[in-house]
Amino acid sequence: MATPLETIYSWFQTGDFPTEMQFQQTFASFRHKDEAITAGEIEGLAEMFNGTASLSVVISHIEDPAAHIDYLATANADNITGDNLYSWQVALGITDIATVDSDVDEGNVYTKEQVDGFVEFLQLQDNANFELIDNIILRLESNDLDLDELQEIVDYIKDNREQIELIQGLPVGDVNDSDVQLTYDFTGFSSATNQRRFNMDVAIHVQNKLDSTEKGAPLGVAPLDSNSQIDPGHLPSLNVQIMTYLKEQFVEDEITVTAGMISTYVVNASLTEDVDEALERSVFYNGVFVPKSMCTLSGPHIEIDLSALLIEPNAGDFLVIKYYKLS
């Protein structure tokens, strides 16, 4: 049993001579540092531990992924919701590099659906352009396979300037327009193989048009002889008269497509004049050239099938038709 401190103090006052027994009782009243203090000897320790969790409970809590799911982010961030996502972005210094349109905000990038729509539109335009290029190639096609470069074509035009000027009805030297050979089959004039024959056939066609409608003055060309020939002296002025007539007959209709004109890929439109089918014409749908094979004429009406161009018509589309009216 420990000796009270007051007693020990009284043994060691000035002038006292502590005895051996007093020294032993003094040291016996204190714990030596080599002596372990058991938990039972610590006052109140047991009561303190009664309010704490056991080791197994603590370990189980540590290993439970849902223990703090309402307060701490999980390793895979599956518990970060819209309520606190922005706070995490700010804390981590993450900003939205690309955003799409929403109900309240305008984004700075297109959605996949919008991009797919653009790609589809461009593919349709490419298909239409390929068709247009094919038509241009057919029109420029030459039997001379050596003319495969632009400079060669220019050189060819320079070398054959006389022939080109004859086609324009301008006599050059001693060359006669009967020497100018046609390289294109004109609808309704398949019998013409040279410029002179073609001029005469066109003159007859125009004269018949004027005579049948009783409109305008006759061209005043010389009557045909027994060989169905026209005096060559009349041909230069005849060309001018023909071009004047064709210019007067030229029509350009600009039509805005309505829903009632559309049937799937087909558009039916009414023209301002009857079309002279023997002469050339051009059709453009939203600026895309439409080949003649896709168009069907019936008087002042035209039916355009756009399926081959993969163009799906819509109300508000723009249709331009250039043609020569039927006198």
Q: What distinguishing features does this structure have?
A:
Elongation Factor Tu (Ef-tu), domain 3, 3 domains, four-stranded antiparallel sheet, alpha+beta, 10 helices, 327 residues
The total count of helices amounts to: 10
Could you give a short account of the major beta sheet? 4 strands, antiparallel
Radius of gyration: 52 Å
Apparent shape = rod-shaped
Low-confidence spans: pLDDT under 50, at least 5 residues? 213-226
Order of helices and strands: HHHHHHHHHHEEEEEEEE
Q: Whole-number average pLDDT?
A: 75
**Overall strand count:** 8
How would you classify the helix and strand content by structural class?
alpha+beta
**Strand residues, percent:** 5-15%
Can you tell me the number of structural domains? 3
Strand order across the biggest sheet?
1-8-4-5
Helical proportion, percent range: 25-40%
Distance between the termini: 142 Å
